[in-house]
Design a protein that fits this description.
Layout: E1 4-7, E2 11-17, E3 32-38, H1 40-50, E4 55-61, H2 65-77, E5 84-86, E6 93-99, E7 105-110, H3 119-124, H4 126-131, E8 134-138, H5 143-156, E9 159-163, H6 172-175, E10 181-184, H7 185-190, H8 203-211, E11 221-224, E12 230-234, E13 237-241, H9 254-267, H10 272-286, H11 299-306
Parallel strand pairs: 1-4, 1-8, 2-6, 4-5, 8-9, 9-10, 10-11
Antiparallel strand pairs: 2-3, 6-7, 11-12, 12-13
Helix pairs in contact: 1-9, 9-10, 10-11
Length: 312
């Protein structure tokens, strides 16, 4: 059995690279285009797999040509497809991505077969969940699936990691099981965490905000802050990890690299502060190359950078 089970979305990313985002009504030409595997679930599962932990991905694909793009990528990375099934008559999920010259991106997601995953599918995987150290999911799946996974983890004692991206309306009882809840600053504000904090808020202000809701909003919390790194809070204290200075080429999927790496380290039994250091390192490496999973580094490279990453 795996150390980590991921209930996740799988998309095929269609990415256009531009100098600057178009204005409403404006047509522009791209300077590059690629089609590749994406979806937060697939990205995070591969990121965790690259970190050396055993991973099982529970996901749904369509029965179209795009599904073959996903399966070929899983095979190339060596990720098990035992719990990845196809839905007859459904399209595979797709993300339409635009990346501007500074590395920023816009993303439009069409769920496709991802929406076919049901709470009953979680119940059918209770044995796999109970055997795992950590279960991970994201906001790209139907809310009843997230709720069912939180219940199953709570019942079995498996650690539940929730990346609430996008910030869909998951009941507070399910979010409360998360250990940790992982969000970026925008997603945190959508949940009421740091709602009074602006773009210029200090790292310490985010630490205080997270600490104030540990044990109520979630069992522990991680807020990613882009080039400033990340903060975390749990019952033992608060932590801040500074991001190493790198040149960002493409931020697409960097948050997934961080989340997958964090879940992998937790599945190994390491502490939350250690996991956040590894997560920040994984994200910093990922932004230095184009694309999602192809920018994810192997375990040795991530751990080497994490060892040089400041924790305070």
């Amino acid at each position: 059995m795996s150390g980590l089970v991921v209930f996740g979305s799988v998309n095929v990313d269609a990415t256009s690279y531009v100098d600057a985002f178009p204005e409403p009504g404006e047509t522009i030409h791209s300077n590059g285009y690629r089609v590749a595997l994406g979806g937060k679930g697939a990205n995070q599962a591969i990121a965790a797999h690259r970190c050396g932990v055993g991973v099982t991905l529970v996901a749904r694909l369509g029965d179209d040509a795009a599904a073959e793009v996903a399966r070929e990528a899983f095979t190339r990375f060596g990720l098990s497809q035992d719990a990845v099934t196809s839905v007859a008559g459904a399209p595979t999920g797709v993300a339409q991505i635009t990346v501007a010259g500074a590395g920023e991106n816009t993303i439009v997601v069409t769920a496709g077969a991802n929406s076919a995953l049901r709470a009953d599918d979680v119940d059918a995987e209770r044995g796999r969940i109970a055997a795992a150290e950590v279960a991970l999911t994201q906001g790209e799946l139907p809310v009843p699936v997230i709720e069912a996974l939180a219940r199953a983890c709570d019942a079995s004692g498996t650690r539940f990691v929730l990346n609430l991206a996008p910030p869909v309306p998951v009941p507070s009882t399910a979010v409360a099981v998360a250990d940790p809840l992982i969000v970026n600053a925008h997603e945190a504000r959508a949940l009421g965490l740091g709602s009074g904090l602006g773009a210029d808020a200090t790292v310490d202000a985010w630490r205080d905000a997270a600490a104030s809701v540990v044990g109520t909003l979630a069992r522990s919390i991680v807020v990613t802050l882009g080039e400033r790194g990340a903060i975390a809070a749990d019952a033992h204290g608060t932590y801040a990890v500074a991001a190493p200075e790198v040149e960002a080429i493409d931020t697409t999927g960097a948050g997934d690299a961080a989340t997958g790496a964090l879940a992998a380290v937790l599945a190994e039994g390491r502490t939350l502060p250690d996991a956040v250091r590894v997560a920040v390192a994984a994200g910093a490496i990922a932004v230095q190359a184009r694309g999602t999973v192809d920018s994810y580094a192997p375990r040795e490279e991530i751990l080497a950078l994490a060892d040089r990453t400041e924790l305070r």
